[in-house]
Amino acid sequence: NQDPMNPQDGAGMVAQLAQFSAVEQATETNTQLSDLISAQNSTASASLSGLVGRTCNAGTSDFTLDRGGAVPPLQVSSTSPMNGASVVISDSDGKELRRIPIPAGASSTQISWDGNKSDGTPAAPGSYHISVDAGTTTGTITSQWHGRIDAVELAGGATQLRMGGVLLSPGAIQTIGSITSTTTTRSEEHTSELQS
Fold first, then answer.
1. What is the pTM of this model?
2. C-alpha 109: how far from its chain's center?
3. What are the pLDDT digits (tens) for 61-73?
4. 71: nearest Cα among 50, 49, 97, 94
5. CA dihedral 2, 5, 9, 13 (to 10 degrees)
6. How buried is 22 (Cβ within 10 angstroms: 0-12 exposed, 13-18 middle, 19+ buried)?
């Protein structure tokens, strides 16, 4: 709108039109950037499907417990024999829920967690943290999940990898092994029938 007693001159009007055009272009650029980010996220998620069926080791720091399967074993290793060491499971608030002793004298061992708290009741699905209390061990202790990647979970806007009953961030994967399968192919079944 213009003041009829003091109308906008031509140069001012062109400047305003240029500002409107710049705002429109900025809005369009933001829209295209959002589309580009969505496409990149989709491509990244699709590339993770190559991990399904592979046996992997993953960092144990933070994870999500889900009741979709059994909790995979923890591979615990030390640069010297462990003494008085324990695996400690804590909730998202840092409250200790379970402490599992590591066999004394072992330098490498697998620890199983049944998904229960120290009182024997099942831990609720949610976010948890695993750490290792070294006890009197003098070496450096590391822990990893060891298991097969069963699926890529895309729910809730976050991409996670399912390893049994545990959901992990893709960034937690440390080693990727060969593809394993728990199913028997039709050719294997046919060969078995011929042999019998």
1. 0.63
2. 24
3. 888 888 767 889 9
4. 97
5. 0
6. exposed
How would you write the chain as a 3-class SS string? CCECCECCCHHHHHHHHHHHHHHHHHHHHHHHHHHHHHHHHHHHHHHHHHHCCEEEEEECCEEEECCCCCCCCEEEEECCCCCCCEEEEEECCCCEEEEEECCCCCCEEEECCCCECCCCCECCCEEEEEEEECCCCCCCEEEEEEEECCEEECHHHCCEEEECCEEECHHHEEEEEEECCCCCCHHHHHHHHHHC
Structure tokens at 146: 């060891």
Task: Give the C-alpha separation, 28 to 119, whole Å.
Answer: 57
- The DSSP bridge partners found for residue 152 are 161
Is residue 58 within 8 A of residue 82, CB to CB? The reply is no
Q: What is the rounded distance in angstroms from the CA atom of residue 70 to the CA atom of residue 143?
A: 18
